[in-house]
What does this fold into?
Amino acid sequence: MPRPIQATIHTAALQHNLARVRRAAPDARVWAVVKANAYGHGIERVFEGLRGADGFALLDLQEAERVRQLGWRGPILLLEGVFEPRDLELCSRLGLWHAVHCDEQIDWLAAHKTQVPHRVFLKMNSGMNRLGFAPLRYRSAWARLSALPQVDEISLMTHFSDADGPRGIAHQMAAFATATQDLPGERSVCNSAATLRHAQDAGVRADWVRAGIVLYGSAPDFPEHSSAHWDVQPTMTLSTRLLAVQELQAGDTVGYGSHFTAEGPLTIGVAACGYADGYPRHCDTGTPVLVNGVRTRLVGRVSMDMVTVDLTPLRHAGLDMGFGSEVTLWGRASNGAVLPIDEVAQAAGTVGYELMCALAPRVPVVVMAD
Ligand SMILES: *Cc1c(COP(=O)(O)O)cnc(C)c1O
It folds into this structure.
């Protein structure tokens, strides 16, 4: 028998979250962002749940090929554009739309031989200072592109640094609006946080929103708001079982470095999940976990293949907590209880994005329809 650990991808939750995005941005089209192998879920595994989107946005050309292989004939957008000139051949062949964020990418397009002109998204650096043309250089980039026979429609895009926080998006929206004022073309500015927090403004939701993390059931602005607040559901469950139960006495310690010491008699469970499965080693005593759907806490350090959990809440409730009990590290337990990935990420000093993306290859993954 294999180790009992497993990840489950919930198709109905993906559909629910996509519908939630549409409610937040009515009449905008939705890019389902599936970069990083669909935030660790697996592109092939989320495709059914997200095929109701208007397009798929990603970074890797290989991932774009995989989306086409799944039979998707609609729009696919390369969010960082191409990385070298010959990538443009694949764009022509697969009909990929691509971002253009620098002069080199325009040079490559100008030299590209193609029958079909490309749809491009011209990216502005409106303040994040990663990719894109500065506002003062944006128009000349637009003019250069629009003169190329290799270019079809030009859409306008930018990306927010603070859509999830107190600084907000106004300063970047102002820079974008000023520099694009009389330019034609569709516009796309919102990531998940902007879609949930700012897209009631039609100018902000614009023509396309680019929804990533919210589709995967994580609150982009946690802990200010939770996934329950935004009405999104977990799309990935990481679950396992208890391999052993230990009875501790006062003064007994648990795990490497004796990081936890029992103050009195304590029953703990040993679960088959460790940092080699993608569970963060930065989690320590106090990190929330569900056992048979009941919320409890980690005790002691995370090791490579095991974690140890406090079974006191189950004992008090007179619930089963023996060998083989279900342990939910994040996501949804069999009894329907939910442990948001955001809470586990917070305990590890990181964000839900990183935990999803870091699910280890050794963890078997199943797709569940509901
Ligand atoms: C990743 C990404 C998104 C999606 O971000 P989320 O915070 O996951 O919604 C949107 N736009 C661009 C350009 C991205 O790279």
Remarks:
- The chain has two domains: 11-216, 236-368.
- The chain has 13 helices and 19 strands.
